[in-house]
Amino acid sequence: MRKVDVFGKKQNLTRPFYLIILIFALVFPGYFMIQNYFTVKTEELTKERLNLQSQVNILLSQSEAEALLEIDQIIPYLPTSFSQNAISSELNAVRDLSGLTLATDYETTFDNETVLPFEDSLPSTLKAVKISVSMTVDDGLKILDYLDILMELDTIYYIENVSVNYLANDNAQVVMTFYTFYNDIIVN
Questions:
Q1: pLDDT at 95
Q2: Domain-embedded: residue 118
């Protein structure tokens, strides 16, 4: 290599070496600083996630205990008889409000002689009616609207099972099983 450039100046061959050392002196500490920053941030986020998870678990355990207490508190407010026609018309209204008016193969069956779906010991006057609803819908996500509207009604429903099977023609076969209750007492 020549020691003089085209303009007659003397070339310094050590300058690129110093430049390479300077780049490495900046890159290595920068890499370790960034690595350390992300490690600390990951640890903070892990602690926050664990804290949130424990709070969610506490809330879930509290809500489950409250739900068990509410069953006994609701019994006096239950209807004293069961009207299949009223429930059928209510379910048809829910179907229409949720946008499932065009659902095909809509079928509702009632089983008045069913056992309570709860394991708790409840009064013998509390009776359950098992309701099965099946239909074919064009959009399986509309079932969520159906269930939301059903839960907002004054009638108390306990949803046991919802099954959505998607068919080849972009339709969905929906089968739902839920219960409604009444307090079989004679009111004077």
A1: 92
A2: yes
